[in-house]
Design a protein that fits this description.
239 residues; mainly alpha; 8 helices
Amino acid sequence: MRASLRTHFRGHLLLFDPPESRDYPAKAGLRLLIAFAILELVLDPRTIEWLQLPAPSPGFFMLLRLVLVLSVVPRIAGVRPSTLGFRRRRDWTTTEASYLVQVLLLAGLVFPLVLAPQWGPSLAEHGWGSVVVAGLVPYFAFGFYQEVAYRGILQTELVRRWGAVPGILVSNAVYAFGPVHASYYTLDASSAAALFGSVLAVGMLFALVFHRSGNLWIVALMHGAGNAVIAVGMGNLAF
C-alpha cells in the first residue's frame, strides 16, 4: 500500500523514471533551432505587421504554427516525435499518468473557485458555447504550442548541446523574456517584474518536469489547460 502511494506522489517531487536517451545528429539539432526561430520570429503577426504586409488573423498564425510544430518540424529535422517528448501512452509510467491527472484535477478545483468572479460576466454576456470556442480552445492550443516549441524543441536541443543546467536556464529565459511575453515590456516596472517573475517560476517547473520525465504531453496539457482557464478568467476572449 505504501509503495503504491509513493508511486502516485513521486511526480510531485520530480522523481520520475529517467527518460530514454534522446540523442540525435548535430545537423538535426541545427534544423530544430532554425525551425524554432522561424516559428517564433517569422511566423508571428507582429513581424508581418512590422514588415507592413497583409496579415491573416492571429488565429491563423496560431493554427499554422501548431500544425508545423506537430507534423512538419520533426520530419524536416529528421527526428522522431518521441525524441521531442511525444511518448506513446503505453510507454508512460504510472507516476507520469498519476501526476498529470492529479495536477489537472487540482487545477480544475482551484482555478474555478479563484476565477469565478471573472468568469461570471463572460458567461453571462456570451454563453458557454462562445466562451469555449473563442476562449478555451484557442488559448489551450497556444499554451500547448508553447511547450512544444520552448521545451520540446528549444530545451531539448540546448540540453543536448550544453548540458542540463545551461540548456534549461537559457531556454527558460528565452521563454520568459522572448517574443511570447514581449508585451510585458510596455508595462510599468513593478507589474512587469511580477509577471516576468511568475513566468520564470512556472516555466522552470515545466522545464524540470519535462527534463526529469522526458514526457512532453504532461507539460503541454498542463500549460494548455492553465492557459485557457486563466485567459478566460481574465476576460481574454478572441471575439
